Amino acid sequence: MPWRDLARFLKQARYMAVDARFDDATAKASGVVWTEDLFGEGGKDNRFTEDGSAYAAAQEQWLADYLPEGGVRMEVGEYEQAATPDGYLRVSHWMEAEETDVMGYYLNPNTLKIDEIPLRPKGEDEQGAATLPRSIAPASVAPPKERAAISGTGLAMLGQIQTQALHAALDAVVEDVDPWDLVAALLLALAGQNVTVHTPEHEPYGKMNRRETALATLFPEGVLIRDPALLRQEAVAVLKTVANCTVSRHSGSGVMAQLMGLLFDADAHIPNLAFDEFLKCFSKSGIMEAGAALKLLPRNTGKEMRTAIMAHVGSEGRWVPTQAGFGPAAGNWKEKLAAMISRDEKMASLRADNNGEVDEVYPDMPDERDDNAPDGADAGEGTDLEGQDYETVALKDVLLEKAGEVLVSDDADPDARATAKAHLDSHLEVVLIAA
After folding, report:
1. I need a labelling partner for 137 at 20 to 30 A (CA). Which of 105, 245, 406, 415 fits?
2. Per-residue pLDDT averaged across 109-119, rounded?
């Protein structure tokens, strides 16, 4: 039983006849039994039912059979809100009404009322002819935005598969990996977007993380144990806890993990991806292109092409589309590197225009920051500078000093002002808004 239906039984809410769109015949067919509220206001329809499932079924029946001419059925989308149908946009209260506007209807899962939302077809022709949505010619409405070749669900699945392949590649070289490769891999891992280290798997609070465990193993007395096998073992273990290919601004390593996959040939460890759950993530055009790459004949539907691909590859075969491999990492890295160089050049120009005043105001400001880093990532010890520009940080520092002078008198404990500043530092946020 769906959780929402179970919640309706437990809630025992009243669903009023006055809010129902269906007639008595539909109510009887759906099993709705009305009860008269004897204490209701006189002269009004005070009938109600507590059978939410039957009430919802009757409302659904009305949407299916009695939708007004020109009306558009809307489905429930994310957060139980009405999802705007493809080819339409919502008409806000500040927009002027047009002849082509239609009304959308959807069943509110919280109230079981049928709500109405004004809609407007996208891409009307030049003559602006008003037509009903059920009779709109294909040429008069712009086609819906073409889907990406692989959906967000598919990209998330690829991130998990690539992470498994990367970890398998690291396991494969743990006994004889070149130490210099490990040094390079560690540099890549620690420069990833998920540092300071955010990973999908959260370690128990208070327990040593894998990096601390590695240090405890290699430096038990404060001096490195120079055992090559032990060094490889611990280095690979730390790499696996830091580097991952998940699709996330906060816990994914980004292009750094992709480059690591190239370094250790993680492509060889990606499994066969010709299975239905993954293939369903392709759009129709995307799955047709995938089939064409395998020299398969075109199919009428995406489902037929998915079946053809799985049959062609077979249970013993292996198929990995281009998007799933680590090959694109080199090009992605070049783009990222060019953006980093461009940012540094702009900051150098800014310093020159301000005669070095930016660095003088805040001399300890780190020069290299990742504009694509997740919100809240640490920029180093002390104040969190990630994602803030130089002027904002300098202004915040000045405000903290002034606030400490105002809040703490001159004859107070010498440490009181520093304590006040530290407290404000963790609670004060400065936002610059361009005029």
Report:
1. 105
2. 90
Provide CB contacts within 8 A for 311, sequence distance 6+: none
What does the pLDDT read at residue 168? 92
Distance CA 261, CA 28 (A): 63
Average pLDDT of the chain is 77
Check residues 191 and 129 and name the one with the higher pLDDT.
191
Separation of alpha carbons 70 and 101, rounded Å: 10
Q: Which residue has the higher pLDDT, 223 or 408?
A: 223
Neighbouring-strand partners of residue 105? 73, 116
**Separation of alpha carbons 47 and 15, rounded Å:** 9
Report the b/e string of 250-279 with b at 16+ CB within 10 A: ebbbbbbbbbbbbbbebbebbeebbeeebb
CA within 13 Å, CB half, 52: 18
pLDDT tens, 62-96? Answer: 998 888 888 999 988 877 788 889 889 998 888 88
| Burial letters 22-33, b for 16+ CB under 10 A, else e | beeebbeebebe
Reported as a pLDDT band with limits 50, 70 and 90, residue 52 is confident
Q: What is the 3-state secondary structure (H, E, C) of 22-88?
A: CCHHHHHHHCCCCEECCCCCCCCCCEEECCHHHHHHHHHHHHHHCCCCCCEECCECHHHCECCCCCE
Q: Which of 298, 291, 345 is nearest to 321 (CA)?
A: 291
CA separation for the pair 116, 108 (Å, rounded): 10
CA distances from 393 to 339, 364, 403, 425 (A): 23, 11, 15, 11
Q: In the prediction, which pLDDT does 170 show?
A: 92
Of 16-25, 300-309, 341-350, where does mean pLDDT reach its minimum?
341-350
Is the CA virtual torsion 117, 122, 127, 133 positive or negative? negative
- Please give the angle made by the CA atoms of 87, 91 and 92, to the nearest 5 degrees: 140
The answer to whether 177 touches 232, Cβ cutoff 8 Å, is yes
At 308, the amino acid letter reads: A
Q: Residue 188 to residues 40, 211, 236, 240: CA-CA distances in angstroms?
A: 71, 16, 13, 12
CA distance linking residue 250 with residue 376, whole number of Å: 9
